[in-house]
Design a protein that fits this description.
alpha/beta, five-stranded parallel beta sheet, 13% strand
Length: 525
């Protein structure tokens, strides 16, 4: 059975570290602790004294002063790993943790998970081809030497860096290495750790290279593991659940995140808020428990993005509407059917197309699979369609040889609607107001990834009011936009009532509109 040696890098909260070590070793696992050399000596002594009688705890031989982005973090990790390999000969796996991490599964579950597959878990992506680095320097992390800390000695860091750039003092990357990048929160098998340590002793050239790279904790183990272990034995993922905001800051978990954390397909999570005492207590009790069944729904990332984005206008990375686009053209009419229940809108526009012969296109800005003619590649992805929306629509008008087109849009596409409404062409909107029962909302949550097949009823009960409010907020935003030509039909209205709005929207006689509004099963789920 798996036995985990936890490699704990920490620098504060001695009482929390003591409790963490006691909880994780009580289930038969072990721990090697590196306590930052910059932290108070008295805190370190308190930790050592409290854990002195625990045979499943050891300490790194050297306390290294750690700094973000420096080799010191890798050095501290290696020191703790070497101690664990020596002291715990029966450890089968080595798992990197920080003081902000806590288990979100039981030891029983974690051991069974690691026993199920003889592999290493480490994010390990091609440094140059992947998009793991979103902003800032990339190749320059490697080809220039970075002997100073960017945060504490910024002037020296950039002075030396810029001097090397001006003088062309680049250096080669070790020829036999493919540089990889990923999170530092890994879980490696014993033989992998031993191979890596052996490599570090033999390849002093590689050690010298990484010592002056920038942020080597994201590249060192990720590169060496790929070098010494066959790719089929590596799972390029972390087992520690962590999320980041739009601004690159780690998301912090609080007391009300307990159910969400347990439902994720991970063994640990970070960062847990220091104030989340109830969450820490419940998670602390969890690791030593037995017989607990975990329903994995894995909706955490999508759910966070959904909740964090509610009510925000002009979201970061959203399509930007100051881009100059050609007009759709004078005399043309774009008729937008807006509905959250896509199947209802599709039924309506198909019936309208049959009755009026007006070209109709379904959710082209939401569904990649929407049938579209070949327009030279502009139609190939949803992203391209949104980015070149006016050019795309102008080409569709030309393709269909029509001055009138009906399209479907999701209510969340309010920015697209505003942009089209600002065009010289005439833009009309028809909002279809539907009833949303709990069954539909649950289905919507699962379709969009906000919930999984195994989400608990309690989690859904908390989520549904938020989704219902969000749908109402989208509808209110459409009303508040003051569109010049906005019409509505309602699920609870009679066909005769809806026909009045349909007639105005499509510019057709009311008898013809009634033929569309009276279609069977228009609003059926």
């Amino acid at each position: 059975m798996a036995k985990i040696a936890f490699i704990l890098l920490c620098h504060k909260d001695p009482e929390g570290i003591i409790r963490q070590a006691e909880r994780l070793t009580a289930a038969g696992d072990c721990m090697s602790i590196h306590f930052d050399g910059r932290a108070p000596r008295d805190d370190y002594r308190r930790i050592r004294a409290a854990l002195a009688g625990n045979a499943n705890v050891t300490f790194a031989r050297t306390r290294i002063k750690c700094g973000w982005g420096e080799w010191s973090l890798v050095g501290a990790t290696l020191s703790a790993v070497e101690a664990a390999v020596e002291v715990f000969p029966d450890a089968t796996h080595f798992y990197m943790l920080s003081g902000d991490c806590m288990a979100i599964k039981s030891a029983e579950y974690a051991h069974a998970f690691l026993d199920a597959e003889d592999v290493d878990y480490i994010e390990s992506f091609d440094f140059f081809k992947s998009d793991w680095i979103k902003t800032g320097m990339k190749e320059d992390r490697l080809i220039y030497r970075h002997p100073f800390n960017e945060r504490t000695r910024k002037r020296l860091f950039y002075g030396v860096y810029n001097l090397q750039k001006r003088m062309g003092w680049t250096r080669p990357i070790p020829a036999d290495l493919q540089i990889m990048i990923g999170s530092q929160w890994w879980c490696l098998r014993r033989r992998t750790v031993e191979w890596v340590l052996d490599f570090t002793r033999k390849r002093k050239d590689v050690m010298r290279f990484f010592r002056t790279t920038w942020i080597p904790d994201e590249t060192f183990f990720q590169t060496l593991v790929r070098h010494v272990v066959p790719g089929r034995e590596i799972r390029a993922r972390t087992l520690t659940f962590l999320m980041f905001s739009d601004y690159g800051m780690p998301v912090t978990f609080y007391n009300d995140h307990y159910d969400l954390l347990l439902s994720q397909d991970f063994l640990f999570a970070r960062k847990i808020s220091p104030e989340a005492r109830e969450l820490k207590r419940r998670l602390g009790d969890l690791y030593a428990s037995e017989g607990v069944r975990f329903q994995i729904s894995n909706e955490g990332l999508r759910l966070y993005k959904f909740l964090a984005g509610r009510g925000r206008e002009g979201r970061r990375f959203a399509p930007r509407f100051w881009e100059a686009e050609a007009s759709l053209g004078h005399g043309r009419e774009l008729m937008i059917v807006v509905c959250k229940k896509w199947h209802v809108a599709k039924r309506l526009v198909e019936r309208a197309r049959q009755v009026t012969q007006i070209p109709a296109i379904e959710y082209l800005f939401s569904e990649e699979s929407t049938p579209l003619p070949d327009l030279g590649g502009i139609q190939s992805t949803v992203e391209k369609r949104a980015r070149h929306r006016r050019s795309l629509m102008r080409m569709l008008f030309d393709y269909h040889k029509s001055d009138r087109i009906i399209v479907c849009m999701d209510p969340s596409d309010i920015d697209l609607m505003r942009d089209f409404a600002a065009d010289r062409a005439t833009t009309r909107l028809l909002e279809i107001e539907c009833d949303f029962g709990d069954d539909y909302l649950v289905g919507h949550a699962r379709r969009t990834g906000l919930a999984g097949d195994h989400s608990t009823p309690e989690s859904l009960d908390r989520l549904l009011p938020t989704i219902r409010y969000d749908l109402r907020h989208e509808s209110d935003a459409i009303r508040d936009a003051n569109f010049a030509h906005l019409h509505r039909i309602r699920q609870d209205a009679r066909p005769e009532e809806n026909a009045v709005s349909l007639a105005a929207f499509l510019s057709i006689p009311e008898p013809t509109a009634r033929e569309i509004a009276a279609m069977d099963h228009l609003f059926a789920d």
